[in-house]
Structures are given as structure tokens and as C-alpha cells.
Amino acid sequence: MGRAIRDLHHAFRRRGPERRQRHRRPTVESLEERALLSAAPHLGAHGLEDAKRAKKPVPGYQQTNLVSDGAVGAQVTDSNLKNPWGMAFSSAGPFWISDAGSGVATIYTVQNATVSKAPLVVTIPGGGPTGQVANTTGSTSDFVVPGTGKAAVFLFDTLQGTLAAWNGGSTAATVHTEPGAQYTGLALGSSGGQNYLYAANGGSNPGID
Prior knowledge:
Elements: H1 2-22, H2 31-39, H3 44-54, E1 67-68, E2 76-77, E3 84-88, E4 95-99, E5 104-111, E6 114-123, E7 129-134, E8 144-145, E9 150-151, E10 154-158, E11 162-166, E12 173-177, E13 183-191, E14 194-201
Parallel strand pairs: 1-2
Antiparallel strand pairs: 3-4, 4-5, 5-6, 7-10, 8-9, 10-11, 11-12, 13-14
């Protein structure tokens, strides 16, 4: 029995360095290696080492700030671009952005990574515009702007429970206001040959269509 215990003790002594080696703390990668890994995960370990030895640029992503309210640098500074939510565009038109923080929609054209701001700024009744869609139903009888007899080109909803429509001018028209509603998104859909407008409601009442 005593010899068995001694043999077991010797076995543990022989295995000790191996056990300690397996529990050694891993080497922390350098900041340069972390940057390369995040920039080009598709290269793999050997590709990254080859790129570093040859001092070649590693493929990755380049961020370009197109529009800002001034908090960060960008190609265009627009003080109306505050807390932007929804974005929409027609097939051949510019980008429309719902600016919840300023209560308006602003319009931008982007071509070859260069942006330009349209002079038109559209006020959204109720304030706090969030969801937005371009009316692509192709029907002149759907989603008519009140008092015009014309279909809306763009539709909006707001955090104050307002649905609004635009087909020209500097102010959208109120279509409906739901007390207690807080609309945060907007979408178009069709069912049974009818077109519907769906509004996501974060308030106390269910959404409407």
C-alpha cells in the first residue's frame, strides 16, 4: 500500500509541469492585431501575418459621415437633423429623413458618396415624426391628402399619435390623430386587393390600419 501511494505521488510529480503548462494564461493580443482582425476577418491568421510582414494595407471598411447636426464632422451640416428616425425614398427621388427632434422632414441627394441637401424642409404636424414611407401603391385613390384630392407622395407618423400626408408644399397635412398613441414606425401593405397603412404604436392604444 505504501509503495502504491509513493508511485502515485511520483506520477503526480511527473505530470505537474504539464498540468501547470495547460493552465498558463493566454497571451493577450496586441492592439495592432485586434485592429487587423476586426478589419479583415476573412484573411485568417496566416493572411494577417503575411499582410503585416509585407506592410500591405488590409481590406476593411471606411466610414464616411454624410450629414450631421454639427455634433460630429460631416460633408453637410444640417441643424434640423436631430434624432432622425424613419427614412424613405421613391424609385427616382432623394432620401427623406424624419427628424423627431426638430419636427420636420429633411431631404438629401447622395451620388458617388457625396451628399447635397435639398432646400425644401417639410414641417410634420404634431411634431416628433418617426415612421415614414413613400406611397408606392400606384393608386390615386389611396391615401389622399385632405383638401387636395391627390394621393400622398410621402406618409408620416409621430410620437404624438398623428398620421400625416404630403404632396407638395412646406407642411404635411394631418390625416388622423389617435389620442394616447405613440407611433414609432410605419409600413405599407396589401391584403385582399386593398392597400393598408400600418402604424406601430408604443402608447396605450393598439395600432390602427
